[in-house]
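debug: dumping io for the single-chain case to check the tokenizer round-trip. Nothing else runs in this session.
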Amino acid sequence: MGVSDELSKTEGPEEPFFSWIDVLILLSVFGIAVYWLFFRKKKVSVDNNSIRTFSIEPAFTRSVSETGFISKLKSSGRNMVVFYGSQTGTAEEFAARIAKEAGRYAMKAMVSDPEECEMEELTKCSEIDRSLAVFCMATYGEGDPTDNAQEFYQWLQEGAADLTGLRYAVFGLGNKTYEHYNAMGIFVDKKLEEMGATRICELGMGDDDSNIEEDFITWKDKFWAAVCEHFNIEKFGEDISVRQYQLIVHTDLPENKIFTGEVSRLNSFKTQKPPYDAKNPYLAPVKINRELYKGSRSCMHVELNIANSKIRYEAGDHVAVYPTNNPKLVEQLGKLLNINLDTVISLKNLDEDSSKKYPFPCPCSYRTALLHYIDITSPPRTHVLKEIAEYTTDEEEKQKLKLMGSSSEEGKNLYLEWVVLNCRSIIHILEDFPTAKPPLDHLLELLPKLQARYYSISSSPKMYPDSIHLTAVLVEYDTPTGRINRGVATSWLKTKTVDNGNCPTVPMYVRRSQFHLPSKPQTPVIMIGPGTGLAPFRGFIQERHCQKKEAKPVGETILYFGCRKRAEDFMYEEELEEYVENGTLTKRYLAFSRDQLQKVYVTHLLRQNKEEVWDVIGEKNGHIYVCGDARNMARDVHNIILEVIQEKGGKSRQEAEDYLKRMESQRRYSADVWS
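debug: decoded output
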């Protein structure tokens, strides 16, 4: 029974159940309840509204859209959707460029993240007149989908939907140095056709090891020609620059409302809360940053403190770090464009239906955007040159920029030579074209986003539960134009030195991998890792050392390591020697390529030990791990293992290839490689 019913009974003279004291108590309780439910809430609401706030929806935030993409297409009068599967941002950038050009071809497009969409709605695309779906799909790792395309990949694998009436085109992004080149693009293109969809343009494949920009613009021209032919479009629209974001300058924001480098949540670096991931990195204090090399080159051993962070990892996982651009380069860019870098801005998407309201966390200062969010050191792509040509006053400079921004053969060749091969960044281009003065907010819209860098973890949690170790060679080289280019992440890590107990921090998180030791310690393993390819194997060896100390049966642990010169760049030499002496490392094969007249690499040693290799993988069901250079070393190792299976296993070439594929599917042959 409610309070009001009880009170009504006290008012009747014939039923005096309560005394006047009871009435006072009940009235007091009622009054407190009314205050709590109504007046207190109103006061809190007024307090909140008195503070000026801004809705922040950074680029990195992902959530399933409240309304389907079909509804958005219909309500906004669009007929084209461009999906992207992106790990480093390039596929997303290509998708945005296609969508931006759609207006020239009588199409109206939007960009969508498949992770935020119900991809089953592809079956409804035929409900929209002249509809078209485009997929820019990057391949990640060993032929895998990117993180944001995992669910879409699984849905396609099921293949239950009928996509009759869907028109589509696919552009894949890959790298030919990897075995499974453009596997995701090929899969999506083939699977959509099998499910009844109609391909309107041949599959495009970009090679990041060569010139993916040229691959993309060449395919893009073919794609738009196919669109025009399919939909009988006769006239192209004008090729004019259209801004995607509106500049908002803030003059009165409190500091706690301004991003200062956070990845997603405002003030997340001040109030750290687990769990830590790509959107919420942990600020790990640097415990140790020491030099591993003794020669002219530099290689860092960095230890990150994760005590009390609840971060867990396994040997073989990757640690991702969010680097910061060199402040001197940021200042240089500000001077070239004569801009006050401390101006606080927001770039707001002019497309109200887009799920990405801002290109990066806003509001923030120009300085913060250039330090933390924008890639200012990579060679800019052709569309950037085309856009900044409009802000160039010298006619010769303008025409050269326009030519490099075109899809003509002359323009492609000039772009390749002048920008790519000469390693020119946006700063170098603005230096070499002094009359080019694009607004900085437009550059922020055009340039790619600064991405996290991934390193193989070089420690084991069994030995180092409260720290994560990484091993990184400092990247620094001279360019053909006489400039010195430095790697963003490694030059930044180089500055993270511990000084008198002062420990700088590194924004990081752990990315799980499939590159792990066998579940049974007694399984023999062969590890092949020249240079910094040794990193994950240092963790593996530590793990097996701990297992031996626990009196567990541990199988053969064989290491192949190589570097240039033993006296200069033999990293972790003392540690490895100790592991050989205590029996953790069963065998250690070393190749120092420049210590003799004829170069010797780990692959030479591997080829000499075919009997032993077959004994491990063929007779003892052991595992092989490869880490390092994908372009040469990993490919050579792959071929040598095929030779071993053929020669020592008595198999034909085809049987050997099938055997190796089974090893890969069983994760008995694993590679963690880069180009």
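debug: round-trip ok. The chain has 22 helices and 23 strands.
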